[in-house]
Amino acid sequence: MVNAAKTKPAPIINRLVVVGLGLIGGSFAKGLRESGLCREVVGVDLDAPSRKLAVELGVVDRCEEDLAAACVGADVIQLAVPILAMEKVLARLAQLGLGNAVITDVGSAKGNVVREARAVFGERLPRFVPGHPIAGSEQSGVEASNATLFRRHKVILTPLEETDPAALALVDRLWRALDADVEHMPVERHDEVLAATSHLPHLLAFGLVDSLAKRNENLDIFRYAAGGFRDFTRIAGSDPTMWHDIFLANREAVLRTLDTFRSDLDALRDAVDAGDGHQLLGVFTRARVAREHFSKILARRAYVDAMNANDLIFLAQPGGRLTGRIRVPGDKSISHRSIMLGSLAEGTTEVEGFLEGEDALATLQAFRDMGVVIEGPNHGRVTIHGVGLHGLKPPPGPLYVGNSGTSMRLLSGLLAGQPFDVTMTGDASLSKRPMNRVANPLREMGAVVETGPDGRPPLTIRGGSKLKALTYTLPMASAQVKSCLLLAGLYAEGKTTVTEPAPTRDHTERMLRGFGYSVESNGPVASLQSGGKLTATRIEVPADISSAAFFLVAASIAEGSELVLEHVGINPTRTGVIDILRLMGGDITLENQREVGGEPVADLRVRGAKLKGIDIPEELVPLAIDEFPVLFVAAACAEGRTVLRGAEELRVKESDRIQVMADGLITLGIKCEPTPDGIIIDGGQLGGGEVHGHGDHRIAMAFSVASLRASAPIRIHDCANVATSFPNFLKLCADVGIRVAEEGKA
Ligand code: SPQ
Question: 339 near 729, Cβ under 8 Å?
Fold first, then answer.
């Protein structure tokens, strides 16, 4: 039963007529009959046994052979006949007095149905609502009618300019009553999209199987056909008559998409012929990730859904003690930059320890979209076939960078120097973050940068601007703004100089030097001259101190803990968290200090300690900027008061990290007071309760750590974005003794 659990709504129409009682028509009729929205459902079918069965199976209330008899007093007429039979049925309907009845249909192509309807009804069709449910099954006929067939399936309605909004709303309402996911789009767009995503694949599957079957050795070929062949050709088992009809009905759109595909196929043929492995690798690596990438974008529905539409809940059990040795994933900032600089370098860059989190992967995908061949990631190994500073190609569409501020801000700098236009979009969180901090200085350099309202994403960067170097003092301590301008400086005439108000992470400067590009650093001033080139190199990405920070705090607050975090990057612009924890009484020692690829690393040993509240020195703020959510948890577990000032930047991260941490800590029973540029936290006893991650990875992980000192479980909502920076967070927690898991999973 559709909506079995809900109470039946009052009928909204008197009589629904469904013409054609196959799988689709029968399922539509049955579902709506059960929904209670129609007082009577009448079926029309030429086949007598089908008419009899339709009534016996409860698909319709009654059935008619004659269209005219069925349509008397109809409010809605659904045409569910084969697409090439549509013309005949429409012509007959046009001869009947239908009053104000709404006509709709389920045809797989829309242009031809609309043309035929105009031919018989006249140019204006205010009561016609063309539609197409994207659903089906291997079964057919009225006996296969299934009231839930359309549940969570897309139904596309293609209203015309003159479509009466009330008629559209009515058909929309009927489909939604079947739990369909209804979308509206123009007729032409529908036919293009379906030609590409459904009709072309069917043509290829039918064509390939037929081509192989025609060969003399066909028995041998099919005998050795493995899973790949079977997967690819599964749809060649579809109904030949139906598909014959669809190709004739959607001829123009199919031809357009087929021609584009044929030229792509020719390019592949040429690459095979010429032994062009680079071209083949480019196509294959892009294709391999494309499916996953696009389904992620669709699932996230940037700009549309509220962030917590897909609420992933972490449930953290109270208590615990940490032991063992772990290595947290690779540094996010360095991973982003390895892809950017490796792509712009000449030669092949090998990366090890790359962070396979969504943010760094978004950067990787952006460069693939701009024509860079990138192999991997495979267990942290990535091979980037650099194209040089001037080798990027225009991407096929907007670059989607998900949740990643680093991708959007750094990319905007280097995109300002390209000859083509690019638009960058992001998810709901990134769409709220300020971009004028990069857009304004880039404009001063001569770039044309368009933002959404209030300087928020999307960002469009127009190509072809001649950039001139800039001498710029950053209004805030931001490594992203500094890096953005240095990357733009690679393309600007003259010497670009950036002065920062306080030291921020210097990975861009270090890594540019690692790629053989000269960057001067003099205290707070960094500068570079355009005109050089980047030479490919080898990069070993150290473990991310920002991820290690969760375990530094966790082991510090859990009595009796002793944990070693291996191979952590301890770049002095990132170690504020260690300094702050030590000032609070934390017991952290650096062992086995060494340098890899221009970055200092060490194994960090941390033991449980009695922490005390402190006034956090302001000069440490930029050096621990991403670690404050979890440092607030340390403060909540410390004896006495901790005061943070000069950290207003925390309010414009993936969430307002001051406010959301304060809200959560107060829920857990901690006395704290947010201030415009910081927070005051009085240490106390953490209780349990429900808190929110607000789609911010670091908030979700910080509250997971808090459970170690909580008196009851903590339920943390909206945790999906932990995958942006720390995909195996829960696994490592389980390994060392933090009892947090996705709700419903042990
Ligand atoms: O990439 P994103 O979303 O901006 O990530 C964050 C984070 O917490 O992971 C900030 F929200 O890290 C930034 C960091 O805060 C990464 C970064 C970098 O790689 O250059 C610099 C810092 O940002 P900012 O705004 O201070 O320059």
Answer: no
Structure tokens at 327: 């290595």
Strands 346-352 and 381-387: antiparallel
Q: Can you read off the two tokens belonging to residue 640? A: 């006495």
Report pLDDT digits (tens) over 79-107. Answer: 999 998 999 999 999 999 899 999 999 99
Distance, in Å, from the CA atom of 157 to the CA atom of 334, rounded to the nearest integer, reads 46
Residue from 482, 509, 626 to probe ligand 1 pocket by mutation (most atoms less than 8 Å from CB)? 626
Which domains are seen in the chain, by residue range? 13-185 (3.40.50.720), 202-275 (1.10.3660.10), 314-326+543-742 (3.65.10.10), 332-540 (3.65.10.10)
For residue 716, the cross-strand partners are 314, 691
In angstroms, what is the span from residue 654 Cα to ligand 1's centroid? 9
* DSSP 8-state symbol, 162: T
Helix (H, G, I), strand (E, B) or coil at 192: helix
pLDDT of residue 3: 45
Side chain identity at residue 585, one-letter code: G
Ligand 1: which of 337, 338, 406 to mutate, most ligand atoms within 8 Å of CB? 406
Please give the pLDDT value at position 301. Answer: 35
Angle at 385 between CA 380 and CA 386, to 5 degrees: 115
Answer whether 438's CB lies under 8 Å from 481's CB.
Answer: yes
Q: Whole-angstrom distance between the N-terminal and C-terminal Cα of the chain?
A: 33
Distance 97 CA to ligand 1 centre (A): 66
The strand pair at 102-105 and 76-79 is best described as parallel
What letter does residue 307 receive in the DSSP assignment? G
Instruction: Find the DSSP H helices in 330-455.
Output: 332-344, 358-369, 405-415, 436-444
User: Looking at ligand 1, which residue's alpha carbon is closest to its atom 4?
Assistant: 405
Examine the residue annotation and report whether 626 is marked as an active-site residue of this protein. Answer: yes
Protein residue with least CA distance to atom 19, ligand 1 = 333
What pLDDT is recorded for position 295? 67
Instruction: Answer yes or no: are the C-beta atoms of 46 and 142 closer than 8 Å.
Output: no
Query: What separation in Å is there between the alpha carbon of 483 and the centre of ligand 1?
Result: 11
* Amino acid (one-letter) located at 130: P
Percent of the chain clearing pLDDT 70 (strictly above) = 96
